[in-house]
Amino acid sequence: MFKAIFLEKAESNDFTAAVKSLDEALLDEHAGDGDVDVAVEYSTINYKDGLAIANRSPVVRKWPMVAGIDGAGTVTASRNAAFQPGDRVVLNGYGAGETQWGCLSQKARLKGSQLLKLPEGISTRQAAAIGTAGYTAMLCVMMLERHGLARDGGEILVTGAAGGVGSVAISLLAANGYKVVASTGRASEAAYLEELGATEVIDRATLSEPGRPLQKERWAGVVDTVGSATLANACAQTRYRGVVAACGLAQGMDFKATVAPFILRGVVLAGVDSVMCPMEDRVVAWDRLGRELDASRLELISREVGLDEAIGVANDILAGQVRGRTIVDVNR
Questions:
Q1: Which DSSP symbol is given to 188?
Q2: Domain count, the chain
Q3: Which domain holds residue 66?
Q4: Residue 241 located in a structural domain
Q5: Is there a domain that residue 62 lies in?
Q6: Considering the chain, what is the average pLDDT of its residues?
């Protein structure tokens, strides 16, 4: 038997999310195409996990489901030649907690093609603290770099700054020599954001309402986790040939903008996907996270809860009440 956050939906659409003890035989029935068994040590709560656990969005595509898009632990058995018992591994995305059983669980049966061996120097706890949010933040930094954004090129805006992606993005960008401006709706988090490396903190209200198609140029680059009017305004304020990396939709999926920033200023709007990102990019991202993300900053960003507390955190993250990253110790 093993414990997991188990999501069920009946034909009547009655939904339940609860920590349950499950028989290991259920892995054969619901995760039979996995070829690597993992003793999960740590998972985490992301915004998408919150949506799934609260049944607020059609995240889950198959029922019943074990929640958790992230997991880090140790291989216990493998039918994949690339992995051996004892290997420390991490999973991010690939449909975990959506179309295949996830990692808010003490045990998981996963596909070796979707697992990444942890770089030396990153513990399983740190891997969960980074999670999809931190790995997405690194993909955003890589996207800005790919489009030639110079470290002395000007200010970089990070929206949704106090959240998981935003917190790690600020730390990474500051460590790489960029001047970072943080946008948040929580003025009380200003000192925290400045400790991570933000040189200025602005109120998200300055970006969250519909604005003009072209506005005063300010940002050399943007990491946007919010979408909707915030993303439209960020694009409208981006400088000539600036780069906007868009990776989130906390404000909404809509994007009411015009082509003006893109054809008059040559602004690049680059989408960043972490779910199905190719493994070669994941390897680069995780290697860089191991070298560039200060462990003390990671501790500042993170807090830890047990599996029984995770459902409450899922609701809190949707309410915008969670700062940084929440690690879930699935064994307590």
A1: G
A2: 2
A3: 2-118+296-329
A4: yes
A5: yes
A6: 95
